[in-house]
Specification:
It comes from Niveibacterium umoris. One of its GO terms (biological process) is polysaccharide transport. There is one protein chain. With 409 residues, this protein is mostly beta strands. The chain has a single domain, classed as Maltoporin, Chain A (Beta Barrel), CATH 2.40.170. It contains 2 helices and 19 strands. The protein has an 18-stranded antiparallel beta barrel. The radius of gyration is 22 Å and the shape is globular.
């Protein structure tokens, strides 16, 4: 269920709830927000992206917030603990980012922890609506695994060689366009994960997999295709550097052919596939003066619909120099290429941002952080009309500047 509330009302409610959470035993808060303003040629900020995701520093044209509360009950005599979780999400895009935010309950679930001995020690069970298994490439804000939904599951069954999790989630889809009726289709996603499989010191494997089954609409007019996916990730420290690297490969078919693996692709045909490779690095220098995030990603979507049959490749980095524990200068460079079978054209986009920052620390993820930024972008002739069209139309370059605050806790 979604409602429209002024952003100032949401902000006031969140501050009051957060203050109460800090004072109440068994109650804690968590969340995220970004907010600010920017401008481009026509007065409103333009954002530059090509393909499934865009490099986000100085390139986010919205205000967005998540505020969660966790309630923990008293521990049972055997050590089992029960918790309740709720999260409200609000979003509003530029230029009218002050009034009328779109809000929804993104999480409402219960969980039980420390359920016994053996494999159950440290394990948990849950049921409800939740964010589930959603690692991302931060500078792209791209969740290559995203199993959010309504369902239930068990997590972190420790078998010694690794920890196993299973969840089942349901997605109901109601078609609301001119070509389809309002009849529902129904999907069930079965999600499996084996993680913390140690193969050497500071080196681990994670295996993800899943399969979906679909139930056609009530009038049997629209079929819900099934599907499956699998992925493997290797996490390791890079030598003696204070740097971590994740390399992964993923493949999905049918309704689980989706770069955000774990989600249902409701428009999929039976033979649709998605293949994805990624490399994601984080680094902090020994003296703490330099931090960096970098990534490479390749995604191939093979689709019956030629305009959705695309190949996306992107590489980017965010080096950040820290003058002290507060002040710094961040830069972000990104290059993306998109090929579409719809017209056989190759589109490219280059984007660069420089930002003066004030943050609570010297790591790549130190927050809160305030930024004053300037962004420039350039794209080729084939990408005319695909990048920042509302502001720059059929031009092949653009820029923006602004101020942004970002925090999580």
């Amino acid at each position: 269920m979604k409602k429209q509330f002024p952003m100032r009302v949401i902000a006031a409610a969140l501050m009051l709830a957060g203050t109460s959470a800090l004072a109440a035993p068994g109650l804690s808060s968590n969340g995220y927000f970004r907010a600010g303003f920017g401008a481009s040629k026509d007065g409103s900020q333009a954002c530059f992206g090509l393909g499934p995701a865009k490099y986000r520093l100085g390139n986010e044209c919205d205000n967005y917030g998540e505020f969660g509360l966790d309630v923990e009950g008293p521990a049972m005599s055997n050590g089992t603990v029960w918790k309740g979780h709720a999260m409200l999400t609000g979003w509003k895009g530029y230029p009218d980012s002050i009034n009328g935010a779109s809000t929804s309950w993104s999480q409402l679930y219960l969980s039980g922890h420390n359920l016994g001995t053996g494999v159950l020690q440290g394990a948990s069970i849950w049921a409800g609506r939740r964010y589930y298994d959603r690692p991302d490439i931060h500078i792209l804000d791209y969740k290559y695994q995203q199993s959010d939904g309504d369902g239930a599951g068990v997590e972190n069954l420790d078998f010694g060689f690794g920890k196993f999790s299973y969840a089942i989630e349901r997605t109901a889809v109601t078609w609301r366009d001119s070509s389809k009726s309002d009849d529902d289709t129904l999907y069930y996603a079965n999600l499996l994960k084996l993680e913390s499989v140690k193969i050497h010191d500071n080196g681990y494997l994670t295996f993800n997999g899943g399969f979906s089954t679909g139930k056609e609409s009530r009038d049997q007019k629209y079929k819900a295709e099934g599907g499956w996916y699998g992925g493997v990730f290797y996490d390791a420290q890079l030598g003696d550097l204070n740097a971590w690297n994740r390399v992964g490969i993923q493949y999905g078919k049918g309704s689980m052919a989706n770069g955000n693996f774990g989600q249902i692709n409701t428009d999929a045909a039976k033979e649709d596939t998605t293949t994805q490779f990624l490399d994601n690095v984080s680094y902090t220098s020994g003296d703490g003066k330099w931090t960096a995030l970098a990534n490479i990603i390749y995604r191939k979507d093979k689709r019956a619909d030629l305009w959705k049959d695309q190949t996306w490749f992107s590489v980017g980095a965010r080096p950040h120099y820290h003058f002290d524990d507060i002040w710094g200068v961040a830069t972000e460079l990104g290059w993306s290429q998109l090929k579409s079978s719809g017209d056989e054209k190759t589109r490219t986009l280059s984007k660069a941002t420089v930002a003066l920052t004030a943050a609570a620390g010297r790591t790549p993820y130190s927050r809160p952080e305030l930024r004053v930024f300037y962004t420039v972008a350039k794209w080729n002739e084939e990408a005319k009309g695909w990048v920042a069209y509302d502001t720059y139309g059929t031009q092949t370059s653009g820029s923006s500047f602004g101020i942004q605050a970002e925090s999580w806790w």
